[in-house]
Amino acid sequence: MSSLLLGGVLWILAAGPLQEAPTTDLYYSTQLGQLDRGGKSTPVHEFNTHVFVTRSGTDFTTRHVIEDAGNTLPWIGRFGQSSRAGTFPAITTVHRHDGLSYSLTVRVPFLNGAPKLAADTKWEEGQVDLEVTGTRKVGDWDCWVVESSDGLGRRGTFLIDQETGIVTSSTQRIFMGQGDRFELVTRLVSTNAVADASEARVAAIGENLRKLQAELGYAERTTDFELTAAQLESVADQIPALTEAAEGTAYERLVALINREVKAQQQRTTAVADLTKRFVGQAAPPIRVKTLTGTDYDIAPHKGKVIVLHFWDYRDSPLTEPYGQIGYLDFLASRRGERVKVIGVAVDPRLGSPDTAGLAVRSIRKLKEFMNVGYDITTDSGDLIKSFGDPRQFSAPLPLWVVIGPNGQIVHYRNGLYKVDVNRGLEELDLVVADALKSAK
Fold first, then answer.
1. For site-directed labelling of 287, which of 61, 224, 262, 281 has its Cα 20 to 30 A away?
2. Helix (H) or strand (E) holding 433
3. Is 273 part of any domain?
């Protein structure tokens, strides 16, 4: 064993990145610090990651599981699996800054696309330039020093074991909010050989969870993920077997989290279903919102039309997939023509204060221009969505979709995202609109 003092913390390290065993548990610790003007870092977020590396000849299979007490990242994004022949899954968690969610991605245990390293090796990954700038001794490891830059001020330094290509530490400069600077520091804390019996269990639970991700249609780096009622039931049925398989492994806490999250979402689903029963078939509350210029929005010209209200934050940053599905909504609006009026309602508490309203409106305008949205976008500091029940009171996410028939009654109420058909877009919503138009005739 060897020890190393990094950043004032004593890290205990094994003799080498890969031990003489088929599977090694690489345990990484990551700390996010916010930098002041003088460059001093104040810790704001910490999380740990187990990365199981299984050797097969010259190739590796990796499985990772993230431990993050912040519970901001959906459970389905806290694990992954890949082989060295392909690209490694993004090890990503989420940090909340100024009320918004930002992805934090650590690049371990290998750098994707890295060639066999030597002095002065240079390569590119997308818009990022990387270069070997020297060597450094880390405990008993001989490491390459790799510097990265994307040309936008985001820089990184990686120490990579010369023998295996494993990242032993990294420091990445990132930005959030209005140019706020942060530093993401990751260190390899320990390496532990996994016994044969434990290796089989880790491989089995990792594979079962990978199949679950595929079954649920999870995409990498998705920070908001809600299951349908059918998916919730399916996951709930699998939890007893997952609990038994994960017992005594690094996945045990994760499966316990899955159990808690599924139960919580089942409660949210029930609460939103109650809202749906409460509003569908009833007269819609008065639609009182503001335009982006601050005037009252005139709803009168649209009486007798099918009205689609889309409650969402409409912020331009951070812009995360699938952008509230507004592109598909814009397609629906243009396809359905004058008999249907789509109104985007930007819900943002900043709109309620003169000091922050301008900032919120500028953010909405940027998104509208970036997405080239053709339908009207209005603003709501919270009063209108409250009159429609506001599913966020039950921790259910926006967007909220409300369809109002020509007679002024609510015919459809749904929170969250729709399943997208590549040819028909928001097919479920479009069918609701079509039915409302038929009933008007």
1. 224
2. helix 427-440
3. no
The domain containing residue 310 runs over which residues? 280-440
- Report if residue 303 sits inside a domain: yes
pTM of the model: 0.74
Model confidence over 238-262: pLDDT tens digits? 999 999 999 999 999 999 999 999 9
DSSP string, 296-327: BP--GGGTTSEEEEEEE---SSS--TTGGGHH
Interatomic CA distance for residues 29 and 63, integer angstroms:
16
The rounded distance, in Å, linking the Cα atoms of 349 and 390 is 13
- CATH code of the domain containing 312: 3.40.30.10
- Could you write out the DSSP letters of every residue in 31-70? EEEEE-TT--EEEEEEEEEEEEEEEETTEEEEEEEEE-TT
What kind and span of H or E run contains 184?
Answer: strand 180-193
Return the sign of the alpha-carbon dihedral for residues 210, 211, 212, 218: positive
Residue type, 183: E
At residue 152 the predicted structure's pLDDT band, cuts being 50, 70 and 90, is: confident
Tokens of 79: 């694990």
CB 303 within 8 A of CB 339: no
* pLDDT surpassing 70 at residue 46: yes
99 lies in the same domain as 160: yes
Distance, in Å, from the CA atom of 289 to the CA atom of 377, rounded to the nearest integer, reads 10
* pLDDT given at position 3: 39
pLDDT at 221 over 70: no
* Residues 164 and 17: beta-carbon distance below 8 Å: yes
Count of structural domains within the chain: 2
Same domain, 258 and 317: no
On whether residue 269 sits in a domain, the answer given is no
Are residues 292 and 242 both part of a single domain? no
- Tell me what percent of the chain is helix, strand and coil, each rounded to the nearest 5: 30, 35, 35
Residue 210 lies in a domain: yes
119 and 250, same domain (yes or no): yes
* Least trusted range by pLDDT, from 56-65, 136-145, 317-326, 357-366: 317-326
- In order of 76, 236, 256, 258, 424, the CA distances from 241 in angstroms are 17, 10, 12, 12, 38
